[in-house]
## 1
Amino acid sequence: VAGDLPSPLDPPPGCAFHPRCPRAQERCRLEAPTLRPLGADRTVRCHFPLDDQDPA
């Protein structure tokens, strides 16, 4: 994700990636996502994951 990293001493509320995520919505600003399965062998911590992407 492009952009500046948030301060670890003063992280943003909600999802830590929302200030620089192009898919961020209001939910991302308010609520931190929980870890959940995505497919057979992956997990994701995102409210709106891209399920068609190859793992990094």
## 2
Amino acid sequence: MLDTDPSHSVVSLRSVGSITSTLIFPLVPWVLECGVVAYSIATALYLASCSDPVYKITGVTNTSCVCPEIKDGDICDLNIFNVTTNCTGTCIGVSCQFFRYQTPRTIDYLHAVNIFGFFWGLFFVSALGEMILAATFATWYWTFHKSNVPFFTLTISAGRTLRYHLGTLAFGSLILAICRIIRVILEYVNHKLSKYDNMFVKAVMCCLRCFFWCLEKFIKFINRNAYIMCAIHGKNFCRSAKDAFNLLMRNVVRVFVVDKVTDFLLFLGKLMITAGVVALAFFVFDGQVIIPETKLPTLNYYLLPVIIIAVGTYFIACLFFNVYAMAVDTLFLCFLEDCERNDGSLEKPYFMSKSLMKHHSVRLAFTSKVTDLCSKNNEAMATGSSGSDGSSTLTLPALGSSGPSSSTLSVVSSSSSFKSSTRSISFQLFPGGHGTYMDESALTASVSGVVEQVNKLISVKPIKTRYNGEIGDVVVGRITEVQQKRWKVDTNSRLDSVLLLSSVNLPGGELRKRSAEDEQMMRNYLQEGDLISAEVQKIFDEGSLSLYTRSLRYGKLSQGVLVKVFPSLVKRRKNHFYNLPCGASVILGNNGFIWISSANTVEGEEGSGGFTQNLEEQEPIARPEREVITRLRNCILALASCKMMLHDSSIQYAYEESQKYTISELLLPEPLLDVSILTQHRLHQMEDD
């Protein structure tokens, strides 16, 4: 569903109302910008006055004056000029007269520097105001209890910005100033070339001017969001710009809608205020509205003051509406970051308001759906499968359901059996946990995700979220960087995971202390781009994971295919290594990375799990095995697209039901949905049995 409601606008109004000092803050950047303008004008005037007087010789044309070394019009120095030098005859009329003022060539370069500094200063002051406001609204958003927002939030944000982020602002404004000065140069060149009727040159200049205009708009967009991310996380400009751009691209449709809706609302607000003030001024000058105790002079032509008032009103409205626009942009980025970083649990609660939760929620309708689940009706919207840990998992699937957002909701029960006679539930008996809230008489999910039920507590884990690791998780990752005594591994989490040199098996399984030679050979063991299976050993304070591959079931992966799904769709079990009857081996990583390869001949703790040390010695995979791997990949993608939980049974059932289709046909929507529905039906039957 597109985010077209005014939820973000309402929250932005609330934040501005909570920190009223932000309404008068635009006066500070405006005063600073006026100072920059005044300084640039004064500098330009001083530079214009930096010129030298030029004197020339006159009167040499007199016939009675013979001066072979000087000529009429030569430049002379008034202080040392002597007409009698080397001159004979009557040279009374020869003199050194003032001709004009001449500006040195260096002054032109200084004027260019002044213009560049003018643009840089304006953009810097504007960026300073944007970051201070962004830091203020970010502080308001990330304060869990809004009543605890500091009274001097704006002052604290200004101090933090001035202390830590001036370099970020200078760099961002420098990029924008360079782009603007290029546009000025292009306009100057275009003005000089306008007198020549060359269509090719005009077309090239038009393209260049259009390109740099678009580039400046794009840089402004990137800078604005980079300042917001810098205010949130405190990182440098480049990292903040990258994080902001990636975050927005992951929500590009929502960004487009919110941006356009906000721009339209702000334009209407400015237009209404301007129209109201202009109408009032017109009626006052026309004499239709009389102000008590005020005598206005009679104006024969009052259209000019009305126009001046209209321009001034619109300028002031833009000045203060920029605060509201900054609040919308900041809170929107905070909202997107909140959705990705948190899941509504007690450990990671949401910071968004209840109105945002209500708009972006998925109604669970627990009363009707759980009742259908308890009655075990074949037409019910719930399916169940038993986990290896003895808990029963009840799934409310998205396949053909009429539920909101068509999302899969899984309820994990701690009991080992399910009886409809004792499990007829109403929402009053099930309190809402993280990711849920009570809306009138219905328990509503604040996110679209997987429902977990522990005893009588129901919580929701978002489907579209990054992987939050736990100790003991089995993960599949890709080496991204080789560092000193460690590798950086992409495990689909917020931060790259760490694999220490001491946490990997040496070739041949040799057990000894790692030496300096081993450090030099690290790239021979694992290099950038290699895929590995590992286990989470430790979680650092900043949230990154420490991995190890000391077991023989872990290590480098090869001759297979990697499938990426949402981590919430991978069911947590004691074992994540499966040799399926179809003749393939599957590693279901808790991080949503699934590795499919040919079947292993050894199972259990001593199995390889896809671990290989000598890749060159391996034989190529036969075509039948490659077809099995490809079919399994398409089946897993089919189940993931329908938001079905992934485990060995569901994957094997999907593989068996897909036999009536070719491998390429499994990429089409109809076979994909058919295989998922048939797999779901078989899971129903397994639960009933």
## 3
Amino acid sequence: MLSAGDGSGEIMITRGADTSAAFTEWVRKTSEQQGPVQDAPSITITQHDGANKPMVRYHLVDAWTSSWQGPTLEEGT
């Protein structure tokens, strides 16, 4: 388990386009409230190795989105 002493800290998640409706819904719910959401589930982040095998899991409780940035469109892509 990852701990920041008092149990708080920040994590930056960057990801490409995927089909995780559960993660997208968690971002939406917690972005609107800017704090823990009563009915939002805890989330687990899984880090994979180069062969896409799970290496480490981080379980987050009472976590929320503090900021969000959508994709950018670049000319010529």
